[in-house]
Design a protein that fits this description.
Order of helices and strands: HHHHHHEEEHEHEHEHEHEHEHHEHHEE
Low-confidence stretches: 298-314
Shape: globular
Structural class: alpha/beta
CATH architecture of the largest domain: 3-Layer(aba) Sandwich
Number of domains: 3
CATH class of the largest domain: Alpha Beta
Length: 376
């Protein structure tokens, strides 16, 4: 017999892998029906009344094809030590939860914590130069005292240099894949992928046995950006996947840095363009970057939300209910990024931004680099 929690997970997995059903629709279905299991117990008339669910989606759900696949997939994951992280689970990445396009479920293997206190995405061209290799290795070496989780894409070039440097310096590193966990691409990196799982791991939103089709790489890039507090683009051509990652990071209100390069170098065109267009800050050193981000060296291994709490007693008299809620969250959490504040408070970003500005004018909070806020 399958326990209720397992049944709910299987039903959620079934929705994710049902044709024509996207992540936003999955959330709608679960919200309106009161659970993933109840979605499959709903009738056609009820389903088509849910916003975003039309006749095609309702028929696709009720065909049962997703459930059949999910039951087999769940068994395959258990048999291969593949962990499943559903968006309602405590193990799901806190950095992804507030994002509108976050995956409903992630597959992972390895030994790592999504919710480390700091995380850094490092991306760049597959055609890495000796300069790019030197800079990537320097960044990893100089980041080691801060103990961040290093996130990249396991690809040729900058990605694999970053992962291997992490292994050398004993930094936890996470490879985000555009395939299933059992389809390491490129195959030449299989050995490194196995080594990474000792102090780090692999993660994907794709089902086991999924091949790395071209369309899956931009989707992979959004996860790299979403899992990272800051993304560093080391080298990039004028067009490339790392520029897509930088674009996602900017849309998620995350910091982006780009390493400048020679103006005649094709590998540096993308980085120079990001800096020129004010889409990235110029990267000069880890010391300068961490100073701009307001990083310290204390509590390096603390989880998100466990930074030292304020002991001061705050009176909420004279504040609106929304202002009091934000002040309470900051008192509890210490320092919070605006996306996390939005998710925790339930306020949209426009309303929250105005409210934060007002509280800053009142001397109640301070703004920090990276769109982070804390009490004064």
């Amino acid at each position: 017999m399958i326990s209720l929690s397992e049944a709910e997970k299987i039903s959620t997995l079934a929705l994710v892998h049902t044709p024509s059903v996207g992540a936003v629709t999955v959330r709608q279905l679960i919200s309106y029906c009161g659970g993933a299991e109840k979605v499959f117990k709903s009738d056609y008339k009820k389903l088509i009344k849910i916003p975003g669910v039309g006749e095609k989606v309702a028929r696709s759900i009720l065909s049962g094809s997703g459930l059949s696949f999910a039951e087999q997939e769940f068994q395959r994951c258990n048999a291969t030590d593949t962990a499943l992280h559903f968006f309602t689970d405590p193990t799901y990445p806190a950095r992804l939860k507030p994002l509108y396009d976050a995956p409903i479920v992630l597959y992972s293997r390895g030994n790592f914590d999504f919710n480390t206190y700091r995380s850094v995405g490092i991306v760049g061209t597959r055609q890495i130069s000796e300069y790019g290799k030197m800079v990537t290795e320097m960044i990893i070496r100089d980041l080691a005292p801060f103990a961040p989780l290093i996130v990249s894409g396991l690809a040729y070039g900058v990605d694999i240099v970053a992962h291997r440097a992490c292994i050398k310096h004993q930094l936890s590193t996470l490879g985000v894949m555009a395939s299933g966990l059992d389809v390491v691409y490129p195959a030449a990196h299989l050995r490194t992928a196995k080594e990474m799982q000792q102090n780090g791991g692999l993660v994907t939103e794709n089902a086991l046995a999924t091949k790395p089709d071209f369309m899956r790489f931009p989707a992979r890039n959004r996860i790299i950006a979403g899992l990272s507090d800051v993304t560093i683009v080391v080298e990039s051509a004028k067009k490339g996947g790392s520029l897509i990652t930088a674009e996602f990071a900017g849309n998620y209100h995350r910091d982006v840095f780009a390493v400048p390069g020679r103006i005649e170098s094709p590998q540096s065109e993308g980085c120079n363009q990001l800096i020129r267009d004010n889409k990235a800050a110029i990267f000069t050193s880890v010391e300068d970057m961490t100073a701009a981000l307001g990083w310290g060296t204390a509590d390096q291994n603390a989880k998100i939300g466990t930074s030292p709490k304020h002991d001061l007693q705050i009176s909420f008299d004279g504040f609106t209910q929304d202002e009091g809620q934000v002040l309470s969250l900051l008192k509890q959490k210490g320092t919070m990024q605006i996306d996390e504040l939005s998710w925790q408070s339930g306020m949209n970003l426009n309303k929250l931004a105005a409210l934060l500005l007002n509280l800053e004018f009142q001397g109640m909070i301070r703004s920090m680099p990276g769109k982070k806020y804390s009490l004064m």
